[in-house]
Amino acid sequence: MTRRAARLTATLLLVAGLAACSGSQQSQRQPAERESTLWDLFANRRSANDTVAVNKYLWNASLEVLNFLPIQSIDPFTGVIVTGYGTPPGGGRSYRATVKITDPSLDARALKLSLQGAGGSSVAPDTVRAVEDAILTRARQMRVRDGNL
Q1: Which UniProt keywords apply (predicted)?
Q2: Given this model, what pLDDT does residue 126 score?
C-alpha cells in the first residue's frame, strides 16, 4: 500500500506541476499587434533587421525629382531605386535611372545616380550632375521644412 501511495503522490505532484506551468502562460497577456506603415521603415528600431540605412530625405527627393520615370523596382532596405524609360517634362530624349543611397546621412557622397539614354546610350556627365544636384537640393529643402537641421 505504501508503494501505491508513493506513486499516487508522485503522479499528483507531476500533474500539479504541469498545471502550474500551463496556467502561467494563460495569465500573460499578448501585446496587441500594431499595423505597420511605409514610414515605419525609417523609424529608429532596436533590431538591425528592422531599420533602413538610407537617408529619408534623399530617398523621398529621388522619388520626387524622378517622378516622371516609371518605377521598376524599389528596395528601401538596400537603398536602390530602378526606373524604366521616360521622357522628362519639356525634353525630347528618354532616360532611365538607377539610384543608390548608401548612407543614412544627408550627404552628396551617399547618393549614387546612374542615367542611361534610350537604347543604353551614355548620358553626358553634366546631365547626371544636374539631376544629382536637383535631388540634393530637394532633399535639403525637405529637411529644412521639417525643421531637422
Answers
A1: Signal
A2: 94
Q: Picking from 2-11, 14-23, 101-110, which range would have the lowest pLDDT averaged per residue?
A: 14-23
Given pLDDT bands bounded at 50, 70 and 90, which one contains residue 128? Answer: very high
Domain-located, residue 83? yes
Residue 15 lies in a domain: no
Q: Which pLDDT value is given to residue 24?
A: 46
* Whole-angstrom Cα Rg for the chain: 28
The total number of residues written for the chain in this structure: 149
Q: Kindly state whether residue 48 falls inside one of the protein's structural domains.
A: no
Q: What is the pLDDT of residue 89?
A: 86
List the domain range (segments joined by +) for residue 68: 53-146
Task: Identify whether 46 is part of a domain.
Answer: no
Q: CATH no. for residue 136?
A: 3.30.530
Cα-to-chain-centroid distance, residue 7: 59
Q: Domain count of the chain?
A: 1
- Is pTM beyond 0.70? Reply is no
Q: CA 140, CA 146: separation in Å to the nearest integer?
A: 10
What is the rounded distance in angstroms from the CA atom of residue 20 to the CA atom of residue 16? Answer: 6
Strand, helix or coil at 127?
helix
